[in-house]
Amino acid sequence: MTRFALITLPLLALAAPLPAAASEVQEAVATLNDPVAQDRMADTITAMVGALMQMQVGPLAKAVAQIDPESGAAYIPPDATLGEVAGRDPEYAERMGDDVRAGTRMAGHAASALTAYAPVLKDMARDLAAQWDRERADSRR
């Protein structure tokens, strides 16, 4: 019985009136489905990952080697970058950006579907809540 209650909690939450949250959800769905926003997110990640991979890790490796001389950090060149240490290819940042773009599109599709199904899910939650009340009342007799 407790398990059923836990399962129905998300559905009951959907049934609650949330007018302010609904507009925020619509804004999020619109942003996720906007090709310009998708490109902006992807370009941001591409730039961030590209910059991160160019970060020099030699000084950090030197500090680690001083603390733990048996670590592999002692063999990292002083001018090594994170990208070189990680062994990544030069197109890694661009692939990450492409993945973000594709992931954002998929999230937009999923959010659109959830928005479309929200009324049905709310009806289901109300039906389940009513059934829950009936079952609970029947079990007390």
Keywords:
disordered N terminus; mainly alpha; 141 residues; 79% helix; 6 helices
Give a written overview of the molecule.
There is one protein chain. By secondary structure, this protein is mainly α. 79% of the residues lie in helices and 0% in strands. α1 packs across α6 and α3 (35-53) crosses α6 (92-139). The model is unreliable at 1-6 (pLDDT under 50).
Distance between the termini: 17 Å
Give the assembly state of these chains: single chain
Give unreliable regions as ranges. 1-6
- The ordered H/E elements are HHHHHH
Largest sheet: none
Q: What share of the residues lie within helices?
A: over 70%
Report the average pLDDT across residues.
Answer: 84
Principal-axis shape: elongated
Q: Which secondary-structure class do the elements indicate?
A: mainly alpha
**Number of separate strands:** 0
Number of helices: 6
The proportion of residues in beta strands is under 5%
CA radius of gyration: 25 Å
